[in-house]
Amino acid sequence: MRTDVDHIVRLEDYLPSDFLIDRVELDVRLHPTATKVTATLSMRPNPAGRSDVPLILDGDEVNLKGIALDERALEAGEFEASPQSLTISQPPQHPFKLTIETEINPTANTKLMGLYRSSGNYCTQCEAEGFRRITYFLDRPDVLAVYTTRIEADREEAPVLLGNGNPVESGIIEGTGRHYAVWHDPFPKPSYLFALVGGRLGKIAKPFTTMNGREVEIAVYVEPGKEDRAGYALDALERSMIWDERVFGREYDLDVFNIVAVSDFNMGAMENKGLNIFNDKYVLASPETATDTDYANIEAIIAHEYFHNWSGNRVTCRDWFQLCLKEGLTVFRDQEFSSDERSRPVHRIAEVKTLRSRQFLEDASPLSHPVRPNQYREINNFYTATVYEKGAEIVRMLKTIIGDADFRRGMDLYYDRCDGTAATVEDFLKAFADVTGLDLSHFARWYAQSGTPRVEVRGHYDGTTQTYRLDFKQQTPPTPGQPTKEPMVIPVVLGLVTQDGQRMEAKCERVNSRGVFLLDKTEDSITFTGVSSRPVPSVFRDFSAPVKVSLDLTNEELIVLLRHDADAFNRWQAAQTLAMRTLAARSTGVPVSEDAMASLSSAFKGFLEEAALRDPAFAALVLSLPSDADIAQEIGQDVDPDAIHHARKELRGHLGKNCFEKLADFYHSLAPAKTYSPDAASAGRRSLRNAALDLLAAADPQAGEKLASKQFETATNMTDRLAALSVLMTIPGSLRESAIASFEERYRDEPLVLDKWFSLQAAIPEDTTVERVQRLMEHPAFSMNNPNRVRSLIGSFAMLNQVQFNRKDGAGYAFLASIVLRADELNPQLASRLLTAFSSWKMMESTRRNHARIALQSIAQKPSLSRDVGDIVNRSLE
Ligand code: 0A1
Ligand code: ZN
């Protein structure tokens, strides 16, 4: 094992930088294998730093070609350079200029960090520590500088040259076939927000006038010929800009805002100042190639990156431990945007589904960590569901506790105070403490304590005194490094419902006017008065805190909530709890009575008859039962994925049979509109119709196969075609195989569409899937170098196919381990993300657990692991 796997960075060791960089002048001469970079850094000692210390700049695989201090070339002995660092042992004690020339090879850069090539175009990715792969630098987020970038390139190879900030100058270099462009970004920024792009790109653009009348050009650059698929992204950008002005009073601040789509990208997108770079999957969309989910994701990610302009760029992070400061807040902001643009309750349910399936899973695994971690080996491994999604839940809880008006005042104060600085979580909380006068120090525990709290709620009705008491108990299980836990501040939004579904007007002084009770002790009780009959409690409305709730409601009481609760989230939750009770019992061999099954299906049937068409998107969510992985998490130990899969299939069949007529009715009455529109209402109708198709096929595979084949062939949009194909995937046979072949034929030149095809096949829960995936790795469209392809095929197998990844003979684990090792040689970030599929291994029954341990050990034993993979594999085994 490499020794730097053991290098740990700790929050408590934070020290301000000893040197500052005020201005950066970069001259980048693009060349496929020998790009030359000249960086002129205007530096000075930091008054807040230590004096008489060497200047140590970060580097990563850079090749030093020259170095000068105040224009005097340094001689050997005055500095020391390695590919990882550049040290000047006796730097000046006054402001100075350091000029550094480096050479890098973008074509050989398969890590996709720093400057690299994607489909021949040049692009960069600098978060978190990629800028040091371009030049030596103080590559840390609290060193803010004003950048001027001159980019030079061959005119044929890279007719478009883009940088951060505003365009200043461009021209041709006569007689060389080359040209250049100069960009200037007046806003001081950390190096992780640096970007440049050079390539052959098509463009769509429109003017935007900000709330104070500034004229901005907003544009999206894509592969030439794909401009007609960029319109939705541009529209989403415009809507995001208007929303941030209206809801948060935040205005855009440069003359241009550019988005560039590239096909090789490690993550979703990146918020570089004025020059967002996107994975093309989150930009390109047409009805024929993108699903409703793709459209919703594009809208959310465009908004997310745009919102970072304030939450992340204008106010950035002091150090990487504060990552949630920008990410949690920006996820919260993009969720609010999507909720406003679409259906709020439907969006909230989708957010919670993701939180539970990804973050709760992570928090119950060996990789559990606080929202603000206090140590890391490799920061790239902390772009996690915990930092992002749980980070957003903390912001949401804060808003729930203090109310909308104070939340907005606190946000304004935070921006006013911290604009142009690198801030901390403490700065953020202080703004809210100052506007409300509240002490938020106990609340701040959400950032420091990992693990998902469990809250037990028990109700006691006393008819003689007409009172109703709710007893709350909270407890957080131990997590790595945190054996004992303190109680959290948990906002519980709640209400009471009568047994016949009416809202109950009972009084309780511990519940504020917005329906919030704050649980901040290990145990607490609240009492309602004036309660004339035994109520049904509706707690954690709108999922008011990221906790696991145990409630002693009967199935009948859950049905009351499903039918009548004023809170849509809890109506959906009631259906999930009902289904989960049956699924968890069936999966663990606990018998479920005929009566219980009958009452479950009559509840679903009743819901379909009464309510489904009022909100089809909501109905589709009610019909989508907890996934195999959700059920595994609920069971928590000695999990048998085969039993779970069987139980789920059986319940889908049962519900499908019992609701057959109603589902068939929906399927036929919700026939597709003539022209496709990605709006939420149209998408909702499609999702209910496709959920109906899925249950019909579960009830009657032959009839389902027929319907799905027909839909597959006649569909006029990708949502319906893919939904049909995914139903066919559950029914082995020749129709399935011919649909797979025809899809491949139709979309052979559409890599993003073939990704869907890879993914569906990788998720087939049959014993031949490992071989199928291995075969697909030989497909001409597949490449180990492209993260989207690898995630679609291998990632889907490991994350979506519970049955085959967790095969009892260990073949799924061994396969993933071999791919992780291969990927690690090309792209460590991609490899370590794939490896997180093992996060549920300790939950499995012993045979699988042993196989998983052996597979993980086979990775850990490899001598030259990247720090990324080394970190994840070691923590997974601890
Ligand atoms: N800040 C980006 C996420 C991001 C992080 C790292 C990256 O490269 C390794 C790329 C993007 C966001 O939150 O969208
Ligand atoms: Zn982000």
TrEMBL record:
EC number(s) from the headed UniProt entry: 3.4.11.2
Domain Aminopeptidase N-like N-terminal: 26-193
Gene3D superfamilies: 2.60.40.1840, 3.30.2010.30, Neutral Protease Domain 2 (1.10.390.10), Peptidase M1, alanyl aminopeptidase, C-terminal domain (1.25.50.10), tricorn interacting facor f3 domain (2.60.40.1730)
Names of required cofactors: Zn(2+)
Catalytic reaction equation(s): Release of an N-terminal amino acid, Xaa-|-Yaa- from a peptide, amide or arylamide. Xaa is preferably Ala, but may be most amino acids including Pro (slow action). When a terminal hydrophobic residue is followed by a prolyl residue, the two may be released as an intact Xaa-Pro dipeptide
GO biological process: proteolysis
Residue ranges constituting the Peptidase M1 membrane alanine aminopeptidase domain according to the UniProt record: 232-445
Domain of life: Bacteria
Presence of the UniProt keyword ATP-binding in the record: no
Matching Pfam families: DUF3458, DUF3458_C, Peptidase_M1, Peptidase_M1_N
Residue ranges of every copy of the Peptidase M1 alanyl aminopeptidase C-terminal domain listed in the record: 556-878
InterPro entries, A to Z: Aminopeptidase_N-like_N, Aminopeptidase_N-like_N_sf, PepN_Ig-like_sf, Peptidase_M1, Peptidase_M1_dom, Peptidase_M1_pepN, Peptidase_M1_pepN_C, Peptidase_M1_pepN_C_sf
GO molecular function, one term: metallopeptidase activity
Family: Belongs to the peptidase M1 family.
PANTHER family named among the record's database cross-references: PUROMYCIN-SENSITIVE AMINOPEPTIDASE (PTHR46322)
Summary of the function given for this chain in its UniProt record: Aminopeptidase N is involved in the degradation of intracellular peptides generated by protein breakdown during normal growth as well as in response to nutrient starvation.
Protein name listed in UniProt: Aminopeptidase N
